[in-house]
Protein backbone atom coordinates (compact mmCIF):
# COMPACT_ATOMS: atom_id res chain seq x y z
CA UNK A 1 0.00 0.00 0.00
CA UNK A 2 2.87 2.34 0.68
CA UNK A 3 3.69 2.15 -3.01
CA UNK A 4 0.75 4.44 -3.75
CA UNK A 5 2.78 7.11 -2.01
CA UNK A 6 6.10 6.46 -3.73
CA UNK A 7 7.27 8.83 -6.46
CA UNK A 8 8.73 7.46 -9.69
CA UNK A 9 11.87 9.43 -8.85
CA UNK A 10 13.15 11.53 -5.97
CA UNK A 11 15.60 14.34 -6.73
CA UNK A 12 16.94 17.37 -4.84
CA UNK A 13 15.27 20.04 -6.99
CA UNK A 14 13.78 20.85 -10.40
CA UNK A 15 17.23 21.66 -11.81
CA UNK A 16 18.43 18.10 -11.10
CA UNK A 17 16.04 16.56 -13.62
CA UNK A 18 17.45 15.45 -16.98
CA UNK A 19 14.60 16.78 -19.14
CA UNK A 20 15.95 15.55 -22.51
CA UNK A 21 16.14 12.08 -20.97
CA UNK A 22 12.56 12.41 -19.77
CA UNK A 23 11.63 13.24 -23.34
CA UNK A 24 13.63 10.31 -24.71
CA UNK A 25 11.57 8.06 -22.43
CA UNK A 26 8.40 9.28 -24.13
CA UNK A 27 7.23 12.02 -21.79
CA UNK A 28 5.98 15.10 -23.61
CA UNK A 29 4.50 17.17 -20.81
CA UNK A 30 5.42 18.24 -17.27
CA UNK A 31 3.03 19.43 -14.57
CA UNK A 32 4.75 21.62 -12.01
CA UNK A 33 3.57 22.35 -8.52
CA UNK A 34 4.63 25.93 -7.70
CA UNK A 35 4.90 26.52 -3.96
CA UNK A 36 8.01 25.00 -2.36
CA UNK A 37 8.73 23.15 -5.63
CA UNK A 38 9.69 25.97 -8.02
CA UNK A 39 10.02 28.76 -5.45
CA UNK A 40 9.53 29.23 -1.73
CA UNK A 41 5.86 29.43 -0.79
CA UNK A 42 4.26 32.61 -2.17
CA UNK A 43 7.36 33.92 -3.97
CA UNK A 44 7.44 35.24 -7.51
CA UNK A 45 9.27 33.28 -10.21
CA UNK A 46 13.04 33.82 -10.14
CA UNK A 47 15.10 34.44 -13.29
CA UNK A 48 16.46 30.87 -12.97
CA UNK A 49 12.96 29.45 -12.98
CA UNK A 50 11.91 31.61 -15.91
CA UNK A 51 14.97 30.39 -17.82
CA UNK A 52 14.08 26.81 -16.97
CA UNK A 53 10.69 27.20 -18.65
CA UNK A 54 12.24 28.82 -21.73
CA UNK A 55 14.62 25.86 -21.90
CA UNK A 56 11.84 23.27 -21.51
CA UNK A 57 9.74 24.92 -24.18
CA UNK A 58 12.78 25.07 -26.50
CA UNK A 59 13.09 21.30 -26.11
CA UNK A 60 9.49 20.99 -27.22
CA UNK A 61 8.22 19.88 -23.82
CA UNK A 62 4.78 21.09 -22.82
CA UNK A 63 4.42 22.50 -19.32
CA UNK A 64 1.51 23.31 -17.06
CA UNK A 65 1.49 25.03 -13.67
CA UNK A 66 -0.57 22.82 -11.40
CA UNK A 67 -1.37 24.46 -8.09
CA UNK A 68 -3.73 24.29 -5.13
CA UNK A 69 -3.13 27.99 -4.61
CA UNK A 70 -5.43 30.80 -5.83
CA UNK A 71 -5.74 32.04 -9.39
CA UNK A 72 -4.31 35.40 -8.35
CA UNK A 73 -1.17 33.75 -6.94
CA UNK A 74 -0.68 31.48 -9.96
CA UNK A 75 -1.19 34.33 -12.44
CA UNK A 76 1.35 36.47 -10.60
CA UNK A 77 3.89 33.64 -10.68
CA UNK A 78 3.14 32.96 -14.34
CA UNK A 79 3.52 36.61 -15.47
CA UNK A 80 6.79 36.10 -17.37
CA UNK A 81 6.38 32.37 -18.00
CA UNK A 82 3.10 32.23 -19.86
CA UNK A 83 2.44 28.53 -19.29
CA UNK A 84 -1.07 27.09 -19.22
CA UNK A 85 -2.16 26.59 -15.62
CA UNK A 86 -4.76 25.18 -13.28
CA UNK A 87 -5.35 26.81 -9.89
CA UNK A 88 -7.12 25.43 -6.79
CA UNK A 89 -6.89 21.97 -8.34
CA UNK A 90 -7.70 20.02 -5.18
CA UNK A 91 -4.77 17.60 -5.12
CA UNK A 92 -4.69 14.62 -4.83
CA UNK A 93 -7.94 14.32 -6.81
CA UNK A 94 -6.98 12.29 -9.91
CA UNK A 95 -9.61 14.12 -11.99
CA UNK A 96 -7.46 17.26 -11.79
CA UNK A 97 -4.43 15.39 -13.18
CA UNK A 98 -6.51 13.98 -16.04
CA UNK A 99 -7.79 17.46 -16.80
CA UNK A 100 -4.21 18.80 -16.86
CA UNK A 101 -3.06 16.09 -19.26
CA UNK A 102 -6.00 16.74 -21.55
CA UNK A 103 -5.31 20.50 -21.49
CA UNK A 104 -1.88 19.64 -22.90
CA UNK A 105 -3.41 17.35 -25.49
CA UNK A 106 -1.63 14.38 -23.93
CA UNK A 107 -2.53 11.17 -22.13
CA UNK A 108 -1.66 10.61 -18.45
CA UNK A 109 1.13 8.24 -19.50
CA UNK A 110 2.82 11.00 -21.53
CA UNK A 111 2.96 13.40 -18.59
CA UNK A 112 5.05 13.59 -15.45
CA UNK A 113 4.07 15.53 -12.33
CA UNK A 114 6.78 17.32 -10.32
CA UNK A 115 6.07 18.39 -6.75
CA UNK A 116 7.27 18.58 -3.16
CA UNK A 117 4.40 16.90 -1.32
CA UNK A 118 3.92 13.14 -1.19
CA UNK A 119 0.33 13.27 0.08
CA UNK A 120 -0.75 15.73 -2.59
CA UNK A 121 1.45 15.95 -5.70
CA UNK A 122 2.65 12.34 -5.72
CA UNK A 123 -0.43 10.52 -4.45
CA UNK A 124 -2.66 12.20 -7.02
CA UNK A 125 -0.30 11.28 -9.88
CA UNK A 126 -0.13 7.66 -8.71
CA UNK A 127 -3.90 7.49 -8.49
CA UNK A 128 -4.21 8.06 -12.22
CA UNK A 129 -1.11 6.19 -13.32
CA UNK A 130 0.93 9.30 -14.02
CA UNK A 131 4.68 9.31 -13.40
CA UNK A 132 5.84 11.62 -10.64
CA UNK A 133 9.03 13.26 -9.44
CA UNK A 134 9.35 14.33 -5.83
CA UNK A 135 11.78 17.16 -5.09
CA UNK A 136 12.97 18.38 -1.71
CA UNK A 137 10.76 21.25 -0.57
CA UNK A 138 12.30 24.69 -0.76
CA UNK A 139 12.85 26.15 2.66
CA UNK A 140 14.39 29.32 3.95
CA UNK A 141 17.72 28.94 5.77
CA UNK A 142 16.12 29.86 9.12
CA UNK A 143 13.01 27.73 8.64
CA UNK A 144 13.16 25.01 11.27
CA UNK A 145 9.64 24.09 12.27
CA UNK A 146 7.90 21.42 10.22
CA UNK A 147 4.43 19.99 10.57
CA UNK A 148 3.29 16.42 11.10
CA UNK A 149 2.88 15.84 7.39
CA UNK A 150 6.54 16.60 6.74
CA UNK A 151 7.48 14.21 9.56
CA UNK A 152 5.33 11.48 7.96
CA UNK A 153 6.97 12.18 4.60
CA UNK A 154 10.38 11.71 6.17
CA UNK A 155 9.40 8.26 7.44
CA UNK A 156 7.91 7.31 4.08
CA UNK A 157 11.07 8.37 2.29
CA UNK A 158 13.06 6.10 4.58
CA UNK A 159 10.99 3.11 3.40
CA UNK A 160 11.09 4.34 -0.18
CA UNK A 161 14.89 4.45 -0.23
CA UNK A 162 15.01 0.84 1.02
CA UNK A 163 12.69 -0.37 -1.74
CA UNK A 164 14.98 -1.36 -4.59
CA UNK A 165 12.15 -2.05 -6.99
CA UNK A 166 10.56 1.36 -6.54
CA UNK A 167 13.39 3.72 -5.65
CA UNK A 168 14.14 6.04 -8.56
CA UNK A 169 12.61 3.56 -11.00
CA UNK A 170 12.38 6.51 -13.37
CA UNK A 171 16.06 7.20 -13.88
CA UNK A 172 16.18 10.87 -14.85
CA UNK A 173 18.84 12.43 -12.64
CA UNK A 174 21.19 14.80 -14.42
MG1 LIG B 1 4.11 22.48 -3.01
Describe it.
The chain is globular and about 40 Å long. It has 6 helices and 6 strands. The protein has 174 residues and is of the alpha/beta class. The model has no long low-confidence stretch (mean pLDDT 96). It has helices at 19-24, 47-59, 71-78, 94-103, 118-127, 148-162, and strands at 9-11, 29-32, 62-66, 85-86, 111-115, 131-135. Bound molecules: magnesium ion. The site of magnesium ion (MG) has 7 residues, from loops.
Features:
alpha/beta, Rossmann fold, 6-stranded parallel β-sheet, binds magnesium ion, 174 residues
| Strand percentage | 5-15%
Going by helix content, strand content and strand pairing, the class is: alpha/beta
Helix content: 25-40%
As laid out across the biggest beta sheet, the strand order is 1-6-5-2-3-4
* CA gyration radius, whole angstroms: 15 Å
**Ligand list:** magnesium ion
Distance between the termini: 30 Å
Q: What characteristic shape results from the CA principal axes?
A: globular
Q: What is the CATH architecture assignment?
A: 3-Layer(aba) Sandwich
What would you give as the CATH superfamily?
HAD superfamily/HAD-like
So what's the CATH class?
Answer: Alpha Beta
**Mean pLDDT score:** 96
Amino acid sequence: MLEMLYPSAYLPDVFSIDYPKLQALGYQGVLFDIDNTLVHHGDDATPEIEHLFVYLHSLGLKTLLFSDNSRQRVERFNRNIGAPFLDEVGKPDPAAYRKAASMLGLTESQVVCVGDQIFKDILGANRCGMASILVDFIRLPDEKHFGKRRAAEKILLWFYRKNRRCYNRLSVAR
